Fold:
Amino acid sequence: MLVVMKAQATEEQIKAVCDHIEFLGYRPHPMPGAQRTAIGITGNQGEANRGNLEEMPGVAEVIKVSKPYKLASRDVKEEDTVIRFAGTDATIGGGSLAVVAGPCSIESREQAFAIAEQVAAAGAQFFRGGAYKPRTSPYAFQGLGLDALKIMAEIRDRLGLRIITEAIDNETLDLVAEWADVVQIGARNMQNFSLLKHAGRLRMPVLLKRGMSATLDEFLMAAEYIMSEGNYEVILCERGVRTFADHTRNTLDLSIVPAVQKLSHLPILVDPSHGTGKRDKVLPMARGAVAVGADGVLVEVHHQPEKALSDGPQSIYPEQFAQMVNEIEQIAPIVNRKLHRGIRVETAAK
Amino acid sequence: MLVVMKAQATEEQIKAVCDHIEFLGYRPHPMPGAQRTAIGITGNQGEANRGNLEEMPGVAEVIKVSKPYKLASRDVKEEDTVIRFAGTDATIGGGSLAVVAGPCSIESREQAFAIAEQVAAAGAQFFRGGAYKPRTSPYAFQGLGLDALKIMAEIRDRLGLRIITEAIDNETLDLVAEWADVVQIGARNMQNFSLLKHAGRLRMPVLLKRGMSATLDEFLMAAEYIMSEGNYEVILCERGVRTFADHTRNTLDLSIVPAVQKLSHLPILVDPSHGTGKRDKVLPMARGAVAVGADGVLVEVHHQPEKALSDGPQSIYPEQFAQMVNEIEQIAPIVNRKLHRGIRVETAAK
Amino acid sequence: MLVVMKAQATEEQIKAVCDHIEFLGYRPHPMPGAQRTAIGITGNQGEANRGNLEEMPGVAEVIKVSKPYKLASRDVKEEDTVIRFAGTDATIGGGSLAVVAGPCSIESREQAFAIAEQVAAAGAQFFRGGAYKPRTSPYAFQGLGLDALKIMAEIRDRLGLRIITEAIDNETLDLVAEWADVVQIGARNMQNFSLLKHAGRLRMPVLLKRGMSATLDEFLMAAEYIMSEGNYEVILCERGVRTFADHTRNTLDLSIVPAVQKLSHLPILVDPSHGTGKRDKVLPMARGAVAVGADGVLVEVHHQPEKALSDGPQSIYPEQFAQMVNEIEQIAPIVNRKLHRGIRVETAAK
Amino acid sequence: MLVVMKAQATEEQIKAVCDHIEFLGYRPHPMPGAQRTAIGITGNQGEANRGNLEEMPGVAEVIKVSKPYKLASRDVKEEDTVIRFAGTDATIGGGSLAVVAGPCSIESREQAFAIAEQVAAAGAQFFRGGAYKPRTSPYAFQGLGLDALKIMAEIRDRLGLRIITEAIDNETLDLVAEWADVVQIGARNMQNFSLLKHAGRLRMPVLLKRGMSATLDEFLMAAEYIMSEGNYEVILCERGVRTFADHTRNTLDLSIVPAVQKLSHLPILVDPSHGTGKRDKVLPMARGAVAVGADGVLVEVHHQPEKALSDGPQSIYPEQFAQMVNEIEQIAPIVNRKLHRGIRVETAAK
Structure:
C-alpha cells in the first residue's frame, strides 16, 4: 500500500502520516519525489488496514500496489532514483553514464594502482576490485580481504575514484561498508536474504547483481529486501544468466534493462565481463548495454590478464578499456545519457 | 579440407584443381576472395585423400579445417560475405546496415501496401511478410499463401523493396524462390535438414533463423547444410532463444553476433521482434543489435497491430519504426556501418 | 468445441451430427469411447457457431474446450488411447508396457539382425532403427534409406517385431509409411508443421518426439496438428530437453509423463538413450521412466557400440538391455502396467 | 593429491603421514575405508609438493586427483558414505532408503505434531520443517525461528524422528546445529561459500540442496567446501533446476542421481515436492527417484495444505504420503535398497 501526499504537504503532515502508519503496526517508507512525497507501507501480511489514512491532512490518495515488490516499483516512486556520491559530481542513474572498472581481484598494491591509474585516466568514475572472492573451489584464491579494502581506500584518496567491492557474508559486509563507497552483493548471494536484510540496514549504496537464474520479479524482490529495511539506494546489475548456450560463459540478457526501467525507478548497470566471460565479447556487449539504455557498465580490466589470479580470460586490457569508453561515449547521447569522464572530487571526504 | 590457390592462379588452374577434387570423389566449392581463391572440399567421411593436390599448378597450400563447419568458416573464406541484389544498391553484409521490415503476416493487399509504403518511406530496403505461417496451433491463421507472394511481388515492383518471406517445406520453397528475393527458413525449421538441402540447391539468398535452442555450432552447421549444396548466400539471423526468463517471450542473445563474426564470414541480422515478443522492447534491442555489430535488423511493423492476425503485441507502429531507423542510423558509424535509407533500383528486374 | 453424444446414440445420429458440423463449415472428428462417442469440432477461427447441434437427436451436450489442443485433450476423450497392431497382441498404452529397442542407425543387414534377434529374445516388442538420419553435420552418415527400410521389413517378417523408424520430410514419410508399422517424427521436426499435417493424413501410428525446447502445450499442439487431419493414433515420446546442465547430453524431463497423462489420453513413451546421451545413465533412467508411469521405453541397443556409425556412446549392450527388461518388468506392476515379453504374432500380415 | 595407505598401515603411520602433510603446509583429511585409509590433501595452490610422502612407512601410493573436487570424489574414498544417527538404527546412504517428511514451515505446535505423528506412523525416519524460511518476498511469513526448533526437538524426543531443518546464515546455523540432527543448506545458499565453510566446521550431517542452476561440478564443489573444513558428513539433495519448461515449478533432474553416484561417495536424496511444485506430480516423481537409485526422498506433507503458510500446492496429504511409502518400498529392492519403516531409537540421546 502506498500513501501519496499532496504536492504542498508539509514535513509535519508527512511525519504525522508516518506516525499513524507505525501506530497501525506497519512500517512507513517516505520517498520524496520531485513533485510530491509518496510513503510506502510494508509489514502487512495480506491487505493492510487503511486506518483513517485517507482523511489525514496532506494526503492525496491511498493506493494499493499490485506488484509483489512495492518500494522498488515505479508505482511508489515515478522518478528515476539517482545515487549521488558525497564530495563528487559522480552519479549513478539520472542521465549520466556510469563507468565502473578494475580487476576481478585485488592482487597487490602495485597491481591495483597500475590498473586504477589507467582506468581513471581513460574516464572511469568508479573502481571495482575483489577483496573477498566467492570462488567455486575452496582451494582457489579467496582474495586479500582487509588488505585489499585498504588498498582500494588509498586509491580513492589518491585518485578520487569511488570504490565498489563485494561483501560475501554479514561479517564482511560491515568491513566493506566501512571502507568502500558501494557494497556489492554478488549473483550467488542475490537470494541470500539474510545478507540482503543486513545490507538494508546500511545507509550507503548497494550494487545488487542478478542471480544466474533469477527472473525479473525475483531480481526486484531481492532489491525490495534491501529497501524494506530502509536502504533505498539500490543499484541493479545484469551480469548474464545461465542457459544452454555455450559460446559465452553466461548469456547476457540485455532486454532486462528496458524491462527493469519500465517497472522500477532503480538504476541498472550491465557487466559484460561476467556476462560473456570472453575478452573479445566485452566491447561489443558494453556498446550494446549502453544502446539498450543501461545506466552504465561495469567491466573487468587487467594490465596483465594472463597473470591474473582470477577471471583473466574475461578481463580487457587498459587500451581496450579506453576504446570502450570512446565508443560508449558516442552512443550515450542517442539514448539521452552523458558520460562524464573521470570524477570531479569536491572534497577529500568519503 | 581446403585448397588455397596462389594470388596469381588462373581460372584454368582453379578449374583443374576442382576437376581433380571431383576425380578424388569429393565436391569442390571454389570461393573467390579479394586476394585469392580458396576451394573448400566436402563429401569426405573422415580425412580426405589429398591426391596430388599440393603439387598442382597454382596451389599455394592444402590445409585441414578443424571446425565441423567448413564452408561457413572464416578458415575457408576470410572476407565477409556480402549479399547483393541485382538491379539495386542494396546489400546485406559488408559495412551496410540492412533494415528489413513488414508485418508478421500478409493479411490483405491493402494492409501490405499500407505498411510497405510507410517502411519504405522511413528507410527500409527490404520488406518481410508471412505468406506461409508456421503456427503453433493447426487452427490458427496459416497465411494467405500464393496470394501473399503475389502481393509482395507487386510491392517489389511498385516500391523497389526487396522481398524476404518464409518457406515452410520443400513445396513452398519452390514457390517462395519464384516470387521472393530472399527465402527465409524459420527457427522451427533450422534443423529441418531436408529443407536446408533443398534451399542449398537454390541460387538465391537464404535467411536462416537460429533455432530456439540452437548452439552456435548447430547454427553454423545448419548454414553449412545449405552451403554444402552449393548455395553460399546465407544470411544468419538471431531471433532469441528459449530460457527460464519470463519478462520477454524469448531471450535475445546479442552476444552471438560477435561470436558468429569471429568464426564465420556470413552476415548476421537480429530480429528484436521475435527476440522479445514485446513492442516496448523492440527499439532498445534494435539499438543494442546494431551497437554489438549486427549487419542489420529485421522487425515486425503493423499499422494496426491490435487487429493483426498474428504477433500483434510485438509489432511496432510505423512511427516507432521511423524513430528506430533514426536511432540505429546514428549508432551505425560507431561500429563502421552505414545505413543507406531506402533502396535505389537501377532496373526493374528481379 | 465438442459434441458429446448420448450413450445410446445410433450410428445414424452420429453421422447426422457430423454432417451438420460439415454443413456449418467445420470438420467433425468422431471419437468413440467405452461409454459414448464424442465428436470434436475443428476448423473454426475463434468460437464455433453451434447451429442447432444441441437439439439434434442423440446429442447429450455441446461443450466448449478451453485448451488450445482439443482432439489431444482428455476433455474430448476421457479413456486412454490404446494403439493396437494388427495381427499381434502388441499394444502401446492401456496398461501394457511397450519396449522399443534397436540401433540408432541401420548400418547393414548383419548388424540389424544381430541386434534385432537379441532384443527380441530379451523381450522387446518393437524394433527401432534409423533409415533416414537427421544429422547435425551434412558430412555425417545420413542413413541407408530405402535399403534400411527393407532390412527392417525383413526383421518384422522373420522375428515378428513391429518396426518404428523416422521420416524426415514429406517424401520419406510416404516411404516409411509403406514399409514400417509406426512413423517416427523426430525432435528436430516436432514443429515442422508441414510434416505433421502429412503424417495426419496417414492412417497408421505416429511416434512424436518432444522438441528440444518444447513446452507441454507445444508438444500437445504438435500432436493436435496430426490429429486435426484425422489421424488419432499418436504416441508421444519424451527424449530430454536442453538445459544448462552438462552431465548429460539432454535433461530427461520425467515429470512430463504424469503431466501429459493428466491432460491428454495419448500414450507416452520415454527415450532414456537420447535423454541422457550416456550408456551408464540409460538403465537408471529407464527404471525411472517406468516408475513415473510411462507407457514404455525406447532405447538404443548396439552389439558393437564402439563401431556404431552414430550415437555409439549412448547405445547399451544387448546384455544391459536384458537386464533393463528384467528391472522394468519388476517395477511395472507397482504402476499398474504389465510387460508382455516379446510379441505374439497372430498372422503374418502387416 | 591423495595418499593411499597400505591395508596393514598402523594408526601411528597414518598419524605420521598427516603430520608430514601439515609440515609441508597443507591440510590432511584421513578417510578410513573398509580396506584401507586414504588421506586427502588440501590447501595447495596448483600441484602439491610431495615431500618424501611416497617413502614413508605404510604408504601404498601417492596419486594426483584430477577432479576439482577431491574429498567428495570416489577417487579419494571408494566406498559409499553412510550417515548414521547416534542412538538409532537410521542411516542415510549405504543401502537403506531414507524417508524425510514434514511441512514446509512449522506453523504451530499442533500443526507440527499432527503431521509428525502421521508421517511417523506411515514410515518416515526423519522429520523436516522450516524454522527459518528463505522467502522470495520480505513481506512473506519468515518462519517461527527458535520456537520452531524447540517444537521439532520435542517431536524428536516424543516420536524418535530425527530432525532436518534449514539454516539461512551463520547465526541461524549455530542455532539449528544445537537443536536439530541434520542442518539443511537450501538451494539459494548452495554457493553461499561463507555459510558452507561454517557448516564445514560443524561435526554433524549437512543436507546440501542443489542450486537452481548448479552444474554437477558446482554441486560437488559446494560439498567440497563443507568437507574441506573437516566435516565429511554431507548429504546431497536434488530439488529441481530452472529451465524453460512450465508444466512444473522446476525441472526435476533425476539423471543427476546416477551421475553423482559415479563420481562421489556421498549419499543423494531427491525432493520431488520442490522439484515439481505440484501435489499430483510428487508421488510419480518420488517413485522415479527411488527407481533411478536415490538414497531416499524428502517430501512436504501437510494435513491441511490449503491452509499452509507456505508451499501448500506442493504438499501432499498424509494419506498420499502413506501410499508413497508403500510404492517406494516395493521399488526399493529392485535397486538394492531397503526401506526401514520408521525409526528404532536405542537411547534417548541426540
User: Anything to note?
Assistant: The interface with chain B takes residues 42-45, 68, 70, 134-139, 141, 168-172, 188-189, 191-197, 212-213, 217-218, 221, 224-225, 228-229, 242 of chain C (CB under 8 Å).
